[in-house]
From TrEMBL:
PROSITE patterns: ABC_TM2 (PS51012). One of its GO terms (cellular component) is ATP-binding cassette (ABC) transporter complex. Keywords: Antibiotic resistance, Cell membrane, Membrane, Transmembrane, Transmembrane helix, Transport. One of its GO terms (molecular function) is ABC-type transporter activity. It holds the Pfam family ABC2_membrane. Belongs to the ABC-2 integral membrane protein family. This is Transport permease protein. Residues 34-260 form the ABC transmembrane type-2 domain. GO terms for biological process: response to antibiotic.
Length: 266
């Protein structure tokens, strides 16, 4: 009879720790001009740049370019925001805060969960800003409520996957600057996808890469949902890719975090 009570108490303790550290990470966002810029300014500039500088030169099969590109812009915004997550995790690992937490009754996974929750909140704001700016720039979605919810679900899964990969890179980094460098490849992955141009317009080698990497099905599915077009197998591929990557990144980040934060590990 005591085991369920003990487990329930441990669960409440872990949730309480996670809530406190989520609040800490969210406060860091509001106090950091760099993170606010990534959250608000970057998605706006990305969308306007692609909409008005490149939109007239890119053929998208009769679809207006702003309707085509907004899902890709969201993907790039999420991966750009991942650099802030990697840097924040590395800062905690290298600047002594984890040692302080270890001397307190704090659940170790709560430190990483706090960073991921803050990343999700930051990206949800960025997505809302980008959709709002897109509407002003000519974006005309025709999705129904169910399609909006499905698109949001895919974007949340994508954000969680990217955020946990960013956490993993932050744990691996030896310096805060190195964390930023390690996470930069994430930023460029969406560029070699269907985010900005149809893969069929690319050279053969790039086309094969673009059609068989994890960002493309997510972008294709979200775009189709926004525009009430057939989704095909893109949604299931996106779930498989990003669900699988998340399932790998979460335990791996946890194991490496415990090793690096153990006494005498550095």
């Amino acid at each position: 009879m005591n085991t369920p009570v003990t487990r329930a108490g441990e669960a409440r303790w872990a949730l309480s720790n996670a809530g406190a550290l989520v609040g800490r990470s969210l406060r860091h966002i509001t106090r950091s001009p760099e993170q606010l810029m990534l959250m608000l300014f970057l998605p706006t500039m990305l969308l306007l740049m692609f909409r008005y500088l490149f939109g007239g030169a890119i053929a998208t099969g009769g679809m207006s370019y702003v309707n085509y590109v907004i899902a890709g812009n969201i993907a790039v915004s999420v991966t750009f925001n991942a650099t802030a997550t990697s840097v924040a995790v590395a800062g905690d690992m290298l600047e002594g805060i984890v040692e302080r937490f270890r001397s307190m009754p704090v659940s170790s996974p709560a430190v990483l969960v706090g960073h991921v929750a803050a990343s999700l909140a930051r990206n949800l704001v960025s997505i809302a800003v980008m959709v709002g700016v897109g509407l002003l720039a000519g974006f005309r979605p025709v999705a129904g409520p169910g399609q909006w919810l499905a698109a949001l679900g895919l974007l949340v899964l994508f954000t969680l996957g990217v955020s946990w990969i960013a956490v993993l890179l932050g744990v691996l980094a030896k310096t805060v600057e190195g964390a930023s460098g390690l996470s930069m490849p994430l930023v460029f992955v969406p560029y070699v996808s269907s985010a900005f141009v149809p893969p069929g317009t690319m050279p053969e080698a790039l086309r094969v890469i673009a059609e068989n990497q994890p960002v493309t099905p997510m972008v294709d599915a979200v775009r189709a949902l926004f525009l009430d077009q057939p989704v095909g197998d893109s949604a299931w591929l996106a779930v498989a890719w990003w669900g699988g990557l998340t399932l790998v990144a979460v335990p791996l980040a946890g194991v490496l975090f415990r090793r690096r934060s153990a006494p005498g590990s550095r």
